[in-house]
Amino acid sequence: MPKLLTSRGDYGILLMASLAKDPDNRPRSLAEIASSCRLPQTFLEQIAFELRKAQLLGAQRGRNGGYRLSRRPEMISLVEILEVLEGPIRTVPCQDSQCTLIACPTRGFWEVLQRHLHKTLQRITLADLVSGNPHQLLPIAP
Amino acid sequence: MPKLLTSRGDYGILLMASLAKDPDNRPRSLAEIASSCRLPQTFLEQIAFELRKAQLLGAQRGRNGGYRLSRRPEMISLVEILEVLEGPIRTVPCQDSQCTLIACPTRGFWEVLQRHLHKTLQRITLADLVSGNPHQLLPIAP
DNA sequence: CTAATCATTACCATTTTAGTAATAATTACT
DNA sequence: AGTAATTATTACTAAAATGGTAATGATTAG
Questions:
Q1: Which nt has its C1' nearest the CA of A10?
Q2: Distance from residue A129 (CA) to nucleotide D5 (C1'), in Å?
Q3: Which residues in chain A land under pLDDT 50?
């Protein structure tokens, strides 16, 4: 089965969560983060660039520059990060309700699942992630 | 965002649901199904072949042959079909719990989401699909 | 015997993914 | 002023996944 999360989103969340850990929200360089999270730096640069264009990150160039969060971690949801890096949340290949693709009897099912997924990812914020107990926010209790 | 469902799974579900509609469960040829569902026949042949190898379908070769369900529709869940055609249900790129990939603070979240998805897809059967009211089985009421 | 049907493998074009590389622009520090 | 650190931006690429097609073989009903 195709996966929901690719490395772009994965790395992006790691980057954002890493920044969210600093309560002072001072700019941190990608070199440092890439090294500490063991991520490929040039790839991370592309990701950070997109997150900044989407105004989830602010950047400071030059010496002692870096990236920082544009908002407080409580105000940044997972769905925002993922939609920037991976496009719209979707379970099915095609959104067009006219499209003959997507097994007709299950279309409604996939659509509701998609909305459910979107809501869940919207509810979880960076603050939840760094707080260390994201389990309380899961879609259904284990 | 990458999608959960690709055309293989999509077509496979259509094929199975189409077969499930016949209460007598007589063999039906792929030529007929591909034509009525407007699917590419040779591609559907590959899909049916895999479903037969997985013993979800039985085949009868030669004139008047075709495929039929191996079990009653109530006994075939969506997750079985999808796992045959798209591999294991997963939300993340890597299952290895040692892997440094997968944003660490969200790992638990993705894993629970994955189990939830698996359970949901397990609960829904072909019989539910052809009954025409699959909405009652959705993960969360709309 | 022959047409219909599944069985099996090989192949292929396009898209997506996961990066690398190169270069430019900006800024802090000396 | 010079230079090293840092983001900005675009171009490129190798590998894998996706969505098929093509070719050929095996089986069976009529």
A1: C18
A2: 31
A3: 140-142
